[in-house]
Design a protein that fits this description.
The chain is an alpha/beta fold and 233 residues long. The chain has seven helices and twelve strands. The model has no long low-confidence stretch (mean pLDDT 90).
Length: 233
């Protein structure tokens, strides 16, 4: 049995990822849809791209951009996915966003590691550990680097780290202007150069045992599919 799987989250989109270890989830697709909801960018940068799912979904929507990750094995898989999906408008590079030479864009996104180093149990799998824990810089460092590269900066992270992300955005000159809280679980937050009143929305991930209308709406924006058993189409 292969150590990899080729999944198809949207029609025609091939995403290669490890069979075991870290795999993309709901949060990444919600971020892609939510970012599109805030306005279609001319060009994007997906930081800590991993399997490339966010970048691939945006490229599938016809938006050119780039994914960057410090781990070479993720970049190899993301490039394979883009090639097999026929997405020439997206590229993937290995590098640290804090030091790499990258052109600025109008939208920078990240689904960063959720836990600081030393918090919680860390996987013995190096790739999974790097995806769940801040082994390549803190959230504040990540946000600061993202803000130097884009006018709009959007993240998804645990709701417990919302205040930290909002403070980091404000200090880096990206006024928080959109916030979507899912239950007491996830926070999606966007900051921009132009000062603005923060618009706060609260939604549920599930309603009546299936994914909520809000989740399905964001999935639909990306073209991604939910399983029919979860209220998808």
């Amino acid at each position: 049995m292969s150590d990899l799987t080729c999944d198809e989250p949207a029609p025609g989109l091939k995403v290669w990822q490890p069979r075991r270890g870290f795999r993309y989830g709901l949060d990444a697709i919600l971020l892609a849809g939510w970012a599109l909801e805030g306005g279609r960018p001319k060009r994007f940068l997906d930081v800590g791209t991993g399997s490339g799912i966010i970048a691939l979904l945006l490229a599938r929507a016809g938006i050119p951009g780039m994914g960057v990750d410090v781990r070479s094995e993720w970049i190899e898989l993301a490039r394979r996915s883009a090639e097999e999906s026929g997405l020439a408008q997206v590229s993937f590079i290995q590098g640290d966003v804090r030091t790499a030479s990258i052109d600025s864009v109008d939208l920078v996104l990240a689904n960063p590691p959720y836990r600081p180093e030393g918090q919680g149990t860390m996987s013995p799998d190096p790739a999974k550990a790097a995806s769940t824990h801040e082994l390549s810089g803190t959230l504040t460092e990540l946000v600061e680097a993202m803000c130097t590269l884009g006018d709009r900066v959007a993240l998804v992270l645990p709701i417990q780290r919302e205040a930290e992300a909002r403070d980091a955005l404000a200090r880096a000159g990206r006024s928080p202007r959109r916030l979507l809280r899912f239950d007491d679980t996830l926070a999606l937050i966007e900051g921009g150069k132009t000062p603005s009143t923060l618009h706060v929305e609260v939604a549920s991930i599930r309603e009546g045992g299936v994914y909520s209308v809000r989740v399905r709406t964001l999935y639909s924006r990306t073209g991604a599919r939910l399983a029919a058993t979860d209220g998808g189409v």
